[in-house]
Fold this protein.
Amino acid sequence: MQILIKPQAHLPAVASTRAGRRRTRLLALSAGLAALVLLAATSLVVGAREISPGIAWQAIFAFDPANSDHLLLRHLRIPRTLLAVTTGGALGTAGVLMQALTRNPLADPGLLGVNAGAAVAIAAAIAAFGVTDIAGQMGFGFAGAALASAAAYLFGGIRQGFDPLRMVLAGTALSAVLLAATQIITINSDNAVFDQFRHWAVGSLQGRGYAVLGPAAAATAAGLALALAMARGLDAVALGATLSATLGARPTLVWLACATAIVLLAGAATAAAGPIAFIGLAAPHLARHAGGPDHRWTLHFSILLSALLVLAADVLGRMIAPPDEISVGILSALIGGPVFVALARQRRQGVS
Amino acid sequence: MTTSRPSKPHALPAPRVWRLGGYAVLVQPRALAVFLILLALLLILSAAALSVGRTGMGLPRLLEVLLDPLSAGTGERMVLNIRLPRVLTACFVGAALGVSGAVFQSVTRNPLGSPDVIGFTTGAATGALIQIVIHGQSALGVTLGAVLGGLATAIAVYLLSISNGAARGHRLVLVGIGVGAILHALNGLMLVKGELDDAVMANLWLAGTLNARNWTHAGLATAGVALFLPPVLLAARRLAVMEMGDEMASQLGIPVERTRLAMVFCAVMLAAFATGAAGPVAFIALAAPQLAKRLGRSQGVPVLGAAAMGACLLVSADLLGQLQPLRLNLPVGRVTGMLGGLYLIWLLTASSRRVRPGKPV
């Protein structure tokens, strides 16, 4: 990750290129937004049951409760599309925060035990309380994710200050314990429990309605606000604790706010849609390519890119083999993995 | 690892050289003592594992039956035919994983290195899942699938990370992450789309279990160690020199790239045989070399120590899983995962408590 301060930024010659770069970036963002809208429209009409664009238009603007296509679109397709954008944006934001906090361009929001915490809570909820509806599982998942990351922060020694390496180690160790516990739960219960769990564990947006969308959107909005407020501070904190304090930032405040935002964002996304790998790792990477090292730009690009990626993976998953679906978590890794390998092969030695 | 600190004369016990004819062996007394103690511990643990269970068998009787199998009654013979392969599998799987981890930690110069960094375990799981979910379950087929899957993944990751004829550690890890993610997704796909019965079987395999091990499994694990431990032992000195840096090692006359390739191959084969015999077992490859190194205070790569430590850890984890009073089905691979994770957390909190509050970490 390269973070450069440009001392000559106020010079007129540089300023003009800066303005030009700003224009290009704004253009790129608008293009991305347009693509997102287009993709969302596609998402409404594609699926096990094709709905023609005309009927989709009617379903939104001239809703007829007796029409099954209208009902399907209103109660499944629309919340599903919105949820894809929400979880995508949440993962992209959490990824940027995580990579900035740990100063590691390969950090994933799942590193702090969010995924493992949600997994063990949901497995326990299914096995012990027989929670089978997705909205109920979501509550358990979010609580599990929040508890696990709080524990990771504690074990990582947050009371002595924020040490990224220690934090990541604690998260990894905790994840190992919790995932082992998850597997022990599924092995020692009925097959039906595992059947439920396996569908959650691959990360899917199937059958998520407004009951899932509402809480997920609320948590994501809160996390997003926190992240955007901290964007400037992140630029400073990325330079290290001492230097950022010298520059007038308050590293502890930034860390705490970002840590909270990560839990809100990654927790909401994982609880709502299951563990979706790779988006949180890859989107910030691509965003830095497009938007440079300034975190305000990185954040915007990353949110847009990850929303695009998740939505695209979901649409593609419905198009490959209808009426069957390939879940978004699987498809995003299948698409993102090769891209990541290609990126790793391109990287010159010594540049990180 | 290069250190510029002046060496303290008494910091480490001086290695001794044993000569026989034209051959010489470098022996570190403390590491040797630790190895022997671990070996004795392993014998005790194995005897305990053989004698406990629903049908108890006293130690004297156990020895008698082991020395003279013909004297055993039918019941006792059955007990031995179930427990002996299980214990042997545990011993050799643990040893193989320990050595494999020691090699990876040396090659990647990273105390957290293990075969997992090149996506090995995920690939082995893919191979096994293909066998279980798509081709139907046969014990031998699953074992073979795991071995081939792990090997194919390791080779693919290695080839993908080659540039200019050399695979550097850093790129190896990155490509390993990417390939691991792809295979993980494929595994998820098979688990979700497969029949529920097959998926449940697959989940059990993924947990890494020593239940229902027979002589095939024991033979597989033993063969792995017998074939691939000796070359690692022979090359241990070279590996230790290579830890000082590739340039330094080349100047000392070591064919760096060839040694690394051969050693990674041996380590992957060890892990492959182990995973084929018992499924994925967490943390042994990570913890055994570190523990052996600390206890033995040894310089270099603790090959024998890691083997003995890995075997001890796995046999005791299996004992623990069987003796727990809740009568849960605790697959040994998850017991090690739990214990290893808790141990790591304890290490972290213990070392953070030692830091005085207010002092920056």
